Amino acid sequence: MNRAEATDILRRYLAQYRALSYAQLDALVDASPLIGDALGPKGTRYEIEVRVVRDRGPGEPIRVLALIDDRGWRALAPLRDGFVVAADGSVRDEVPAQ
Question: pTM to 2 decimals?
Fold first, then answer.
């Protein structure tokens, strides 16, 4: 797996979730994990899993965690990234891309 390519794809994929409001993310808490596919510029097909979870109860921060792999051996240790959204809409990075 091309690490730089996968990291770029994962960050672009997560940008869709960063654009959502706290209320929109809250609606996804029970719907996760959300699985998607992406095709890299070099033809590699990636699988992306996004989990939207709340730390505690309603009104608490929501974590958006994403994993990406190329369905090869890297599936055992996928790259990951994520962020946390507070009820006031503020966003902070939670998990650096690895």
Answer: 0.85
